[in-house]
Specification:
- The protein has 303 residues and is α/β, with parallel strands linked by helices.
- The chain contains eleven helices and 13 strands.
- A seven-stranded parallel β-sheet has the order 3-2-1-4-5-7-11, with helices on both faces. It has a two-stranded parallel sheet with strand order 6-13. Strands 8-10 form a two-stranded parallel sheet.
Length: 303
């Protein structure tokens, strides 16, 4: 596989790069990206996702494109400007990437593009698979536009898979990095009543799932990038407290988080019981299917 990767310096990107042979990278700042990624990656080309398509030479010999770039949804309050950045980084960025792909003389065979389980909205206890209808809300709307732009590559004969990612857990940052401090201080606990379903995945499994989607020609369209055993927020809280050997019973009230995070707080309380039907039906084997095993791998035993 000769792969090109966007968003290579994010939380997921470096894990994916380890599974690839000298991948091409697109970055706003190639010098900084080279410093962070080291010599194991191939050429790094400058690309501003908002400014237009990537340089044509970046696609030379590439058969697979992994598109991970996008503004974090969990950084800062959701002001109108921040929401515009979240949307544009996904919608306009993907549109320009696909434009570059379709304009090349020798086109890649496959595009595996990030998406998110936010497309399902708040759905209570409903089991959600790839054929489930989209939900409502800001993230659901953004994800639908995002996937629409990625699917446009199919008009040029390119196989497209969109990975609807859940909460990604791993060492060194991500969602778990934001949770650890209050738990280690003994102030961790469920969000509200903790009954909401929490779709999650270990970062190592997610990186492998990207490669799986690229390697299997039967994988097309939406792919839920979540572990096969979703948990309620209260179950996750107990598992994390147990691994850290800390109490985890102080509930975080919605109103307090709303004051802290603004509109984004609602996302934390949304319930999404998402299942990875496509991954399982196409033979993907999760290394970390349950939350206890995932946390044991990520976090060293507490002293």
């Amino acid at each position: 596989m000769r792969a090109l990767v966007t968003g290579a310096t994010g939380f997921i990107g470096p894990r994916l790069l380890r599974l690839l042979d000298s991948p091409v990278v697109l970055s706003r700042n190639p010098e900084r990206a080279r410093g962070r990624l080291g010599p194991s990656v191939g050429p790094i080309y400058r690309w501003d996702p908002h400014a237009g398509p990537p340089p044509a030479e970046a696609f030379a010999g590439v058969d697979t494109v992994f598109h991970l770039a996008g503004e974090s949804v969990a950084e800062g309050r959701w002001t109108a400007a921040q929401k515009a950045r979240i949307r544009d980084s996904r919608v306009i960025g993907t549109r320009n990437l696909v434009l570059g792909i379709t304009q090349t003389q020798t086109k890649p065979a496959t595009l595996v593009s990030s998406s998110a389980v936010g497309i399902y909205g708040n759905r209570g206890d409903e089991e959600l698979v790839e054929t489930s209808a989209p939900g409502t809300g800001f993230l659901a709307d953004v994800c639908q536009e995002w996937e629409h732009e990625a699917r446009a590559a199919a008009t040029a004969g390119i196989r497209v898979a969109t990975l609807r990612t859940g909460i990604v857990l791993g060492s060194g940052g991500g969602a778990l990095g934001k949770m650890l401090t209050p738990f280690r201080l003994g102030a961790g606990g469920p969000l509200g009543n903790g009954r909401q379903w929490m779709p999650w995945i270990h970062v190592a499994d997610l990186a492998r799932l990207y490669v799986h989607a690229a390697d299997h020609e039967t994988v097309r369209g939406a792919v839920n990038g979540v572990a096969p055993e979703p948990v309620r927020n209260s179950d996750f809280t107990r598992a994390l407290g147990k691994q850290l050997r800390r109490p985890a019973f102080m509930p975080a009230p919605y109103l307090g988080l709303r004051l802290l995070f603004g509109e984004f707080a609602q996302v934390l309380f949304d319930s999404q019981r998402v299942l990875p039907r496509v991954a399982l039906e196409t033979g993907f084997v999760f290394q970390y299917p349950d939350i206890a095993a995932a946390l044991r791998e990520i976090l060293p035993p507490a002293a």
